[in-house]
Amino acid sequence: MKHDSIKEGKNGIAISIGGTSVFINIIRSSRKTLHMRMDEHGNFTLKVPVYSSMDVIHSFLKKNEKWILASNERHRKYVESRDGINFNNGEMHLLFGRYCPLRIVDSGKCLEFDGGFLLRKDCVSVGRSVFMDFYTETLKRYVEERIRYLTGITGLRFSSLRIGKALGRWGSCTYENKLTFSWLLAMAPPESIDYVIIHELVHTEIKSHGSQFWQEVEKYVPDWRLRREWLRNNYDTMRAVSP
To answer: What residues contact 40, with CB distance under 8 A and at least 6 apart?
Structure first.
């Protein structure tokens, strides 16, 4: 695969790869290596050493064409998923790995679950925030119960637990062993939630992601790669619900 065209501008480069046009914002800095990322809005930024030539930049982009295309396609699917969420009758939403139907009702709590989601009609306009709050409370109750069981079989201990609103990571563990889990996990299968809990519990003993860390995770979750893969494959669909 090769660039169909490259147009250099004042702030970056517009490239066309296989018919797909992408703009790459170029930032020159004191860093020693080239690093590219795509933000949550689908914008690409390439940070390069101050004196990097355009030939070096073009070569880097060529080596990363597949990643650029894959990331661009992921964002397109995310936008498509987000645009498809209108909180109408019959819409399907995830809960613990299963798609469940949404029904708009006249009375009751703002959002309840009874074999499916029941969203009160005067809460539709704030549906995203209502779903996030529902997922947060639901996950909190679930994780509190599961972590009691998992600490029992692993012997690992933590100092505190909270459900956070971050979208960029499934969980985190501080040096004080305070655990935080993303509310998005309420949409994941129980097996994948267990993997994230074990992942963070192992961090209470091993802070890095070295071979020893993954060996310890595998001791409790032999198929952790499959469980993580589900999270990776469904991340964009899950975050499409966020406010």
So the answer is: 167
Q: Are 70 and 137 members of one domain?
A: no
Across 80-101, b (16+ Cβ under 10 Å) vs e yields eeeeebebeeebebbbbeeeee
CATH number of the domain to which 154 belongs? 3.30.2010.10
Q: Look at residue 18 in the predicted model and tell me its pLDDT.
A: 75
Q: CA 162, 39, 99, 114: dihedral to nearest 10 degrees? A: 40
What are 105-128's pLDDT values in tens digits?
999 999 999 999 999 999 999 999
Radius of gyration of the chain (CA): 22
Pairing verdict, β 160-164 and 178-182: parallel
Question: pTM (2 decimals)?
Answer: 0.82
Separation between Cα atoms, residue 166 and residue 6, nearest integer Å: 36
Query: Parallel, antiparallel, or unpaired: how do β-strands 12-17 and 178-182 relate?
Result: unpaired
Q: Is the residue at 88 inside a domain?
A: no
